[in-house]
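User: Show me sequence and structure for the first protein, then do the same for the second.

Assistant: Starting with the first protein.
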Amino acid sequence: MAASINPWSQVYTLAAGKTRANSTMTTLRKPDGSETSSIQETMKVMLDHLFTEDTLHHKNIRRTIEETICTSDDLEFSREEIKHEIESFNDKKAPGIDGITGGIYLRTFDTFPRLITATYNQYLKR
């Protein structure tokens, strides 16, 4: 996506440590196509995007995923298996819509290996 269309390109730049010393994110493109005019408005747009109203649909999804699914062939992932998979990500590829590259993900895993492993094993259980 072009940087002018993708509101997360600046977030990716910050997370990847590719910012210039004087670079400050102050605007995002709002759903109506206009841009935010202050850091406060930018934060409000981000929070509105990330934290939506709790609807009956969302409550049903949460209820469904909280039910434990147990099958006999679901063995937990080992830390080594997860690290091997993350290392296989191509760091030269552009990030997805979330802005996270393979390199960022690997650094996160190296910092929090137990957390990432536990998270994947919880995904497997659910």
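Switching to the second protein now.
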Amino acid sequence: MKRNYLWYLCILAALVLVVMTFTPLVTPAHKYKPELFGLPYTLWTGMLVSILLVMVTIASAFTHPGSKRNDI
């Protein structure tokens, strides 16, 4: 049962990240400040969302109900 709970949590996290990507939180109109290491706001927040999506994908590979892995 724990695997199913984690699987649905991964699905929810992925959906939240995808929806958040298209909100003004990540892609505001005409805003490039603050900068981080010389990268504008939209670029570094997009990179952060992409990294988080990769992490959720890896976690969901281990928690998928059909997975044969017993690591979790």
